[in-house]
Design goal:
7 helices, 14 strands, seven-stranded mixed beta sheet, alpha/beta, binds zinc ion
Length: 286
């Protein structure tokens, strides 16, 4: 199992010299086993790079798992180049909180006003499938599980398993406990934390929303629905997972800032902490 980061930025794309190394594209991760159809996690502007890679590899099918519909997770969707090919098939797996309206939301977003094409105007075949909370289902050759996150409007976390390897994708979420409670406070997990910890249990790789730098920053902006590195580390450790990728970087977090973040966690064990970088691939077999 391999994971490639095509976009690691939250909120808004921030291209430019200050973000050249970690990347400015919004959220998109590709999971592949090198043989079967790829699985895409979120469709931010990183989709543009992913689409070119899919075209180069001749992929004819993919599944897209969407955590929620905020722009940094869907803004690249109409620029996924294989959608302009009639031989390409995309299945979009959508949290059931959006219900039967999921396709309608997309039809408004891609309806000829905010983008020149409307959804039915794309040559590719695009199917929308609701994903139920707490369910376990097969997506191509990958086994998927879901858990609830703490984010305005709702969002789901995903666990992806294949051939004895596993990845937990946790974006976007605020801590699932009140201040002074739960794993970050050194106390037993809350019920919501426990569900997410079970989803993350023993995975090889955790990808976790770390939009904020610190607990203090989180407390100033609690309603935004994001986490900070110490919380991601506490949850990953509680789940007994080996390696953590800090993800969903703030638009103000330039390369220098993210280097300092990486340096702060460089000697940490259980989990080993990485800062996700656009273009980076993690090979779980290697
Ligand atoms: Zn986001
Ligand atoms: Zn969001």
């Amino acid at each position: 199992l391999k994971a490639t980061f095509w976009g690691v930025r939250g909120s808004i794309p921030v291209p430019g010299p200050e973000t050249a190394r970690y990347g400015g594209n919004t959220l998109c991760v590709e999971i592949t086993d090198g043989e079967n159809d790829p699985l895409i996690l979120d469709a931010g502007t990183g989709c543009w790079l992913l689409g070119k890679s899919l075209q180069a590899s001749g992929a004819s099918r993919a599944d897209l798992l969407l955590t929620h519909f905020h722009l940094d997770h869907v803004g690249g969707f109409p620029f996924l180049m294989p959608l302009f090919s009639s031989s390409f098939q995309l299945r979009v797996m959508v949290p059931e909180i959006f219900g039967q309206s999921a396709k309608d939301y997309f039809a408004r977003f891609i309806g000829g006003v905010f983008h020149p094409l409307s959804l039915p105007g794309f040559p590719a075949s695009i199917e929308f499938v609701p994903v139920h909370l707490g369910s376990s289902f097969a997506c191509g050759t990958y086994q998927i599980r879901t858990a609830k996150l703490n984010h305005p409007g709702g969002a789901y976390a995903f666990r992806i398993e294949k051939g004895g390897h596993s990845i937990a994708y946790v974006s976007d979420t605020a801590p699932l406990a009140e201040v002074g409670e739960g794993v970050a406070a050194g106390k037993p997990p809350t019920a919501d934390e426990q569900q997410l910890i079970e989803l993350m249990n023993g995975v090889d790789m955790v990808i976790f929303d770390c939009f904020f730098y610190s607990a203090e920053e989180y407390l100033e902006k609690r309603s935004w629905g994001h986490s900070y590195p110490d919380y991601a580390v506490a949850m990953t450790a509680a789940a007994g997972a080996r390696s953590l990728y800090l993800y969903h970087h703030a638009q103000d977090a330039n390369d220098e800032f993210l280097d300092r973040l990486a340096a702060r966690w460089a000697t940490h064990k259980d989990p080993v902490v990485h800062v996700a970088q656009e273009g980076g691939t993690v090979d779980l077999e290697g």
